[in-house]
Design a protein that fits this description.
Length: 271
């Protein structure tokens, strides 16, 4: 093994420890009793293994309701985002029309705008439409994102135009071309978009805090935040729920890991 490879492995190990260290510490700490969390000599691994924090977390409030709300929002918004962003990316990648470059420039410019800039107009529209304090207020605004459109457009540009032209000559409709040629060939990019969209919606806190007021419609992230009160915080339950909230993202990534890596690489190959 060459020295350069050894250095690369050492650097990779250091980065893994740096990024995963806090996550692993949270998981191990969730199995510690409350007295051990605030011990004068804290340890990385639990001295006394217990599931009390998980049992207590499920007893408090409507924990299963919060998880269900998060799944509804994450899955629904991800499904909408995949359909809308894939169609938009296909239109911008394979159709030439007046103003297409200008539209793409506008989409790219909106990527630079933070959510805080557009929260007020989005909130005003949702309130006017009667969606305030409903799960639709969390699902609809995420249906189309400039990042998703850009990702799909960059990937779909790499699909040869000759395939599409041949299908049109054979009499295939645009819908058949999209569903039978574009979608199957864009699976890596679609998987990447689905992972990002699910992650954004699952971990979102700021927008649900603004758009939701009823505790029964809280997402998991709002429920975790409410465990920290003015006069104290139940850190054991917070650690347990935080550990549970990592599971869906881990499962999604493991399932689509191959497509995610391939889509991330290929989406930036051509412009």
């Amino acid at each position: 093994m060459k020295k350069a490879q050894i250095y690369h492995y050492i650097l990779a190990i250091i980065l893994i420890v740096f990024f995963l260290g806090p996550v692993i510490y949270i998981i191990f700490s969730s199995f510690k009793p409350s007295s051990e969390l605030f011990s004068a000599s804290p340890t990385f691994f639990p001295r006394s293994f217990t599931l009390d924090s998980y049992v207590e977390a499920f007893k408090k409030g409507n924990f299963l309701t919060y998880i269900g709300n998060s799944f509804i929002v994450a899955i629904s918004s991800t499904a909408l985002a995949v359909v809308i962003n894939t169609m938009s990316g296909y239109a911008l990648a394979k159709f030439k029309f007046k103003g297409d470059a200008f539209i793409m420039m506008i989409i790219l410019s909106t990527i630079m705008l933070p959510l805080e800039v557009i929260m007020v107009p989005i909130f005003s529209v949702l309130k006017t439409l009667g969606m305030y304090n409903s799960l639709l207020a969390l699902i609809i605004p995420a249906a189309a994102t400039p990042t998703g459109i850009f990702l799909m457009r960059q990937y779909l540009v790499t699909i040869p135009d000759d395939i599409i032209q041949s299908a049109r000559i054979d009499g295939a409709s645009e819908w058949k071309i999209f569903t039978r040629i574009i979608v199957p060939n864009a699976k890596p990019a679609i998987a990447t978009l689905a992972i990002f969209s699910f992650m954004w919606r699952w971990n979102d806190y700021i927008w649900p805090l603004i758009a939701i007021s009823s505790p029964k419609k809280y997402t998991l992230q709002l429920a975790i935040a409410n465990m920290s009160g003015q006069y104290g915080s139940d850190y054991s339950s917070i650690l347990a729920t935080s550990a549970i909230s990592m599971i869906p993202m881990l499962v999604v990534f493991l399932v689509f890991q191959k497509q995610f890596v391939q889509g991330t690489v290929n989406s930036g190959m051509k412009g």
